[in-house]
C-alpha cells in the first residue's frame, strides 16, 4: 500500500511535486472527504530536536486524516540519552507505527533511518540538510497565489545557513521561475548551492539591496537573520535593519506581491505588513495542514481503489 | 457554528453560568451521548506554563467528545524560545486547530490572543489573572452538593495571591451567597478584590480564625498557603499550622459541610479528612471533565440542529 | 467490566500468563478485529521517570484498540514538583481516565497507587521492583519461537540490578524451563532472587562464561552491563568486553538459538548479529504492541458479551 519515503525535496520531480500539490488542493477544498481516510493507522513523531510548528502541523494533519499519533517526547527523556543508536531507535519504533516523521540534528539522519526501516520515513529536518515538507508547503502557497510558471521570486535574508532557502531554490528550478537572491555579502548563498542552481540552467541573480528588484517580484520570501551569525552585535543590528521590511518598504512593490516567511519571525517583517494584502506568511503556515495531509495520504497509499501505486522520487537507497 | 471565547469568569452572567452547568449535568448523566459529538475537530493545548491537572483534564474532556488534541509541548522546546511573539504563535496555531486552550504566565495573554485569532480561545490561567474553567467546576461542585442559593461559603488560606479565589468570589456574587474569608492578616483579600465584591452588594465578611464561622458554613473552600510568601520560614510554619484542618477540626462543623480545594494540596488538609463525608476535593477535580466537556461543547457549537446560536458573556474585544 | 490491576509478574499464575499470551496471539493474527474494541475509553500515561519505548508502546497499543490516551508529561512540569503526594495525583487522574499506566522511581509505587484508585493500574516499572508487561512480552517472544516447555534459557549480563531479569526468571518458574545465569562474579543474581528461585524448585545454574553453556541454549537473553556499576572504568571495559556477543560468538550456538535483549543496547550485542536469524530483539520490542493490547483488553473487560469476567492473579491488596 505505502509508496516510499520522503527524504529530500531536491529529488522530487516536477510531476512528483504537482501530484502532491494537486492532492493538497483537493484536501483543502473538501477536508471532510479525508476525515477518516486512514483510521486505524498510527504515525510516530520522532523529534530529536525541538519543534513547535512542524510537529504540531504534522500532528494535526495526521489527525485530520483519522491517523493516531505517538510522540517520542524530548530527547532528554528518551533512550537516546542511554546511548542507543538512531538505527536501533527507529527499528524499534517502526514496530509501533505505520510511518515515521523524523527530525534530527545530524544531516543525513533521515537517509540513514530510511535504510533501516520498512515503513515510510518523512524527513522533517536533518540539521543543515533538508526539510522537504516545508518546501512543498512553500510551493503550494506560491502556486495558489501565482501559479508556478513565468514567475519572479525574491529570496532575502540569511541565504548562507537557511536550509529552507536552499531547498526551495532547488525545487523552484523545476519550474519557469526567475530567482533573485538578496542578502548582505556575508550571508550570500553558499558556493555549492549557487553552483547546483547554475547547473540546472536556472535564471539566478544576486543582489545586496532589495530596492534593485522589488518592483519585479511576484513573491518575496523573507528569512530571519540570526544574531548568532555575527561576531559583533552592532554589525548584526546594522545588517538586520537593512533587510527588515515594513508597509512603507512595500509601497514600491507590485500590488500583487506575495510576502512569505517560514516563521518564526522576530523583527524582519514589521507588524504593519500583517494588515496588508501582501502578507501571506500565516496562510503559508496554515498550508502545512493540507500539504502534509496530502503527503501522508500519498505515502500511506491514499490512491483510489484500483489505481496503480504512485511512487515519489525520493531516492532512499 | 462556534460562539465565542472564554477569557474570564467575571464576565459570565448568572444565565451563562447556569447554561454551562446545566449542560455539564447532562454530560455527567449521559456521557455516552456526547462521545462522538465533535469528531473531526482538533483542539490545541497551548500551555506556556507547566500544568498537569488542567492540561490533562482538558485533554480528557476533549477526547470524551471525540475531539483530537495537539499539544504545544514545553515552552523550552518551542518557537517561543526563538523570540516569537504570542500573537504570531497563536495565529499560526489557529490554522491547525478548531479551538485553543491557552495558559500563559502573563495576565491579559488570553485577551490578547483572542484579539488575533478567529477560533474560540479558552483561558486556562493567565498569570495572576483569571482561570474561568476552574471557577465553573468549583461552582458545579457547590451546586451539585448544595445548590447555589441561600448558601454560606467560607474561603480560607492564601486569599491575597490566589487567582482561583478571586475568580470564585466574583462568580458567587451572581447568586444568593454569604461569603466568609478566613486568612492571616498578611494574606487578606487584596483591597481591589474586596472593593469589587462590595460594589456588587455581596454579603462579605473577613475572619482570622476558622472557629468563628465554621458552624455556619455549607462549604469550606481551602487553598494552599505557599512557603515562598513568607520571608521567615518559622513564621510560615506557624501560620500554615493555624490554617490546617483535620477530622478533629471538622467535628464542630455541620454534618453537611462540603470541603473543597483546587489541589494540589500539601499539608493544609490532613489525610484523615479524606475518609469523611465532608471531603469533596477529588469529586471537584473530577468535575473538570463534565464541566470542560460542556464548555467545549458550547464554544464549538453543540446546540441541537436548528437552535439559535447561544453566546457567552465573555467580552474579548 | 474491568478486572483488576497488573502490579507484578511474580503473582501471575501459569493460567493468567497463558490467557494473556493467547489473546496476544489472537491480536497479532487479526489486529483489525480489535481496532475499535475500546472506543470511547481513555488511558492515562503517568511516567514519573523518563521512558521512550514503554510509553510509546503502551500509547500505540491503546490507540490500536481505539483507546485515547492522556499523558502526564514530564515530572518537572507537573504538580508533583509542587509537593503533591502520589496518592493525591493518582486519585485526581483516575477521574479523567478509565485506566492508568504508572512508572515511578520508587519500588512499591504501583501497589500504593492501586490501593487508592478504582480504575485498573498497570505497573510500567517501579524502581528496582517490577515491570510485568515487559515480562509478558518476553514470554510471548519465547513462546512464539520455542514454546514454553522443555526449554533451556540463558540470561546474561547484569543480573544483580536488572528488574527485567528478576521478573523474567520468576515468571519462567511457571514453566518447564532450565535457567542458566551468566555474569561476572560482581553482578550475580542477588541472594534473595536465587533463594526464591530455588524455593520454587526451579532448575537453576550459574556461570561466569557463556561458552560453558552456549550450545545447550534455546534462548539467550542479554542485558546491558552499566558503566556506573563499576568504580573503575578499566574494570568496566574488561568485564563488558567479556560479555559482549557477536556473530562469531554465535557460531558455536545451536542454529535455532534465539537472542533477546530488552533494549536499549549499547555495545553488548554487535551489529553483525542483527543480520543473523538468531536476532529476535526487534521482534521482541515489537511484541510489546500485541501483548499490551491483550493486557489492556483483558483489564478493560474485553471478554465476549455474556462471558464471565476473568480475573488476573495480581494481588494488589
TrEMBL record, chains A, B, C:
Pathway: Pyrimidine metabolism; UMP biosynthesis via de novo pathway; (S)-dihydroorotate from bicarbonate: step 2/3. It holds the Pfam family OTCace. GO terms for biological process: 'de novo' pyrimidine nucleobase biosynthetic process; 'de novo' UMP biosynthetic process; amino acid metabolic process. It is an enzyme of class 2 (transferase). Residues 150-298 form the Aspartate/ornithine carbamoyltransferase Asp/Orn-binding domain. It catalyses: carbamoyl phosphate + L-aspartate = N-carbamoyl-L-aspartate + phosphate + H(+). Keywords: Pyrimidine biosynthesis, Transferase. The keyword Transferase applies. InterPro entries: Asp/Orn_carbamoyltranf_P-bd, Asp/Orn_carbamoylTrfase, Asp/Orn_carbamoylTrfase_sf, Asp_carbamoyltransf, Asp_carbamoyltransf_Asp/Orn-bd. Transmembrane segments: none annotated. Residues 5-144 form the Aspartate/ornithine carbamoyltransferase carbamoyl-P binding domain. Its EC number is 2.1.3.2. NCBIfam families: asp_carb_tr (TIGR00670), PRK00856.1 (NF002032). Catalyzes the condensation of carbamoyl phosphate and aspartate to form carbamoyl aspartate and inorganic phosphate, the committed step in the de novo pyrimidine nucleotide biosynthesis pathway. Belongs to the aspartate/ornithine carbamoyltransferase superfamily. ATCase family. This is Aspartate carbamoyltransferase. It comes from Halorubrum alkaliphilum.
Amino acid at each position: 500500500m505505502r509508496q516510499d519515503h520522503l527524504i529530500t525535496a531536491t529529488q522530487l520531480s516536477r510531476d512528483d511535486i504537482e501530484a502532491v500539490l494537486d492532492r493538497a488542493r483537493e484536501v483543502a477544498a473538501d477536508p471532510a472527504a479525508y476525515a477518516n481516510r486512514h483510521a486505524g493507522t498510527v504515525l510516530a513523531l520522532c523529534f530529536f530536536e525541538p519543534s513547535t510548528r512542524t510537529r504540531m502541523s504534522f500532528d494535526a494533519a495526521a489527525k485530520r486524516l483519522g491517523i493516531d499519533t505517538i510522540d517520542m517526547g524530548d530527547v532528554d527523556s528518551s533512550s537516546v540519552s542511554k546511548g542507543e543508536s538512531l538505527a536501533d531507535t527507529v527499528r524499534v519504533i517502526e514496530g509501533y507505527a505505520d510511518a515515521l516523521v523524523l527530525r534530527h540534528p545530524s544531516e543525513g539522519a533521515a537517509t540513514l533511518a530510511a535504510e533501516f526501516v520498512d515503513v515510510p520515513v518523512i524527513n522533517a529536518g536533518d540539521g543543515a540538510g533538508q526539510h522537504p515538507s516545508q518546501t512543498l508547503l512553500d510551493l503550494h502557497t506560491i502556486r495558489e497565489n501565482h501559479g508556478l510558471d513565468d514567475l519572479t521570486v525574491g529570496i532575502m535574508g540569511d541565504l548562507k545557513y537557511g536550509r529552507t532557502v536552499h531547498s526551495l531554490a532547488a525545487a523552484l528550478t523545476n519550474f519557469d521561475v526567475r530567482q533573485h537572491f538578496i542578502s548582505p555579502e556575508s550571508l550570500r548563498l553558499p558556493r555549492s548551492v549557487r553552483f547546483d542552481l547554475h547547473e540546472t540552467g536556472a535564471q539566478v541573480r544576486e543582489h545586496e539591496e532589495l530596492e534593485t528588484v522589488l518592483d519585479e517580484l511576484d513573491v518575496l520570501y523573507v528569512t530571519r537573520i540570526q544574531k548568532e551569525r555575527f561576531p559583533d552585535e552592532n554589525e548584526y543590528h546594522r545588517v538586520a535593519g537593512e533587510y527588515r521590511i515594513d508597509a512603507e518598504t512595500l509601497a514600491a512593490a507590485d500590488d500583487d506581491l506575495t510576502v512569505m516567511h517560514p516563521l518564526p519571525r522576530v523583527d524582519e517583517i514589521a507588524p504593519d505588513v500583517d494588515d496588508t494584502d501582501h502578507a501571506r506568511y500565516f496562510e503559508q503556515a496554515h498550508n502545512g495542514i493540507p500539504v502534509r495531509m496530502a503527503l501522508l495520504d500519498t505515502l500511506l497509499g491514499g490512491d483510489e481503489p484500483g489505481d496503480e501505486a504512485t511512487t515519489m522520487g525520493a531516492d532512499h537507497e
